[in-house]
């Protein structure tokens, strides 16, 4: 089969190498799938650079999230059959940026019929992160104000739709007019272009000075620090990630004085500590998708040959919506 290998560490466009390798055989508890689509995620970029918490041995095929058709079942796999259309996480080193991939049966779920392959491949990481963050960690309520940073990115775009589905008023922060258009299409009530506007001032103006009840922050750094200036009384700042590159040190006395919570989310830990909740989350996401309340916004469909360029543009922060390798494109 054809696939992309990371053979050394660095920028995706420099380290991805086209290879021909054997189709992987599933081990116990695994399934082999023909890749129908694989969404590009920032963890793929970080793994290429050697900066992610998961550091697979070289060489490996990135693509941590995918939709595929099962072609073989490993020992001990129940509940699935050859030919099933599924989505979930890849088992590295056989990620989704190839013609076939491996998946763990415990992180594999039926793909909703209401979503096409590219959309289904984008439903696992970003939407599960958003659902656990907003509902389980922040306990978002109807009528609350949700501020979403990087609102046109993979996790941010999911948070907009999930926030709207939960009955929140959503303010999305983006960089540039193209990304602002994406946030509007996703349903954000108010869109802030950080290149020309101060999100702190906008949030205060839109909430009568009260601030946002929940702030969804996958950026970190100065974005987090400035978010503390517009968090409401008893608000919750969700620490989702550090796409901005800086891990912030914060003065905890400020959280005490303003009476807000700083809430961390490591979604991957739920797969280890409470996998049953991941299944419940997928069932709820399927319900929302079937009801037309959520649908990943896929802006680009890539052929296999175009994966390095697409992943590099994601790394450079110039993509909008979801960028997806789609088999057969």
From TrEMBL:
Pfam families: ADH_N (PF08240), ADH_zinc_N (PF00107). Gene3D superfamilies: Medium-chain alcohol dehydrogenases, catalytic domain, NAD(P)-binding Rossmann-like Domain. It comes from Gordonia malaquae NBRC 108250. InterPro entries: ADH-like_C, ADH-like_N, ER, GroES-like_sf, NAD(P)-bd_dom_sf, Quin_OxRdtase/zeta-crystal_CS, Zn-ADH-like_protein. The lineage of its organism: Bacteria, Bacillati, Actinomycetota, Actinomycetes, Mycobacteriales. It comes from the Bacteria. SUPFAM superfamilies: GroES-like, NAD(P)-binding Rossmann-fold domains. Residues 10-325 form the Enoyl reductase (ER) domain. One of its GO terms (molecular function) is zinc ion binding. This is Putative oxidoreductase. PROSITE patterns: QOR_ZETA_CRYSTAL.
């Amino acid at each position: 089969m054809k696939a992309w290998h990371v053979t050394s560490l660095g920028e995706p466009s420099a380290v991805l190498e086209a290879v021909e390798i054997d189709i992987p055989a599933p081990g116990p508890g695994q399934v082999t799938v023909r890749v129908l689509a694989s969404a590009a995620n920032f963890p793929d970029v970080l793994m290429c650079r050697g900066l992610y918490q998961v550091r697979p041995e070289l060489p490996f095929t990135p693509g941590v999230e995918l939709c595929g058709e099962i072609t073989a079942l490993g020992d001990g796999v129940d509940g699935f059959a050859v030919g099933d259309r599924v989505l979930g996480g890849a088992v590295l080193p056989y990620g989704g940026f190839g013609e076939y991939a491996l998946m763990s049966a415990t992180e594999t779920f039926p793909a909703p019929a209401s979503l096409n392959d590219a959309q289904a491949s984008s439903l696992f990481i970003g939407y599960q992160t958003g659902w656990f963050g907003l509902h389980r960690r922040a306990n978002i309520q109807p009528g609350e104000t949700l501020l979403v940073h990087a609102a046109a990115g993979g996790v941010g775009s999911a948070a907009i739709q999930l926030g709207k589905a939960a009955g929140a008023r959503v303010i999305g922060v983006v960089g540039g007019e193209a990304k602002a258009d994406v946030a509007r299409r996703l349903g954000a009530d108010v869109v802030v272009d950080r290149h020309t506007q101060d999100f702190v001032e906008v949030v205060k103006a839109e909430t009568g000075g009260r601030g946002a009840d929940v702030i969804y922050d996958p950026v970190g750094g100065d974005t987090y620090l400035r978010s503390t200036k517009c968090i409401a009384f008893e608000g919750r700042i969700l620490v989702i990630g550090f796409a901005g590159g800086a891990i912030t040190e914060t003065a905890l006395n400020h959280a005490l004085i303003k009476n807000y919570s700083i809430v961390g989310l490591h979604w991957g830990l739920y797969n280890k500590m409470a996998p049953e909740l991941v299944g419940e989350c997928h069932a709820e996401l399927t319900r929302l998708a079937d009801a037309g309340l959520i649908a990943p916004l896929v802006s680009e469909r890539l052929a296999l040959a175009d994966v390095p360029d697409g992943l590099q543009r994601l790394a450079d922060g110039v993509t909008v919506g979801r960028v997806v390798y789609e088999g057969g494109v």
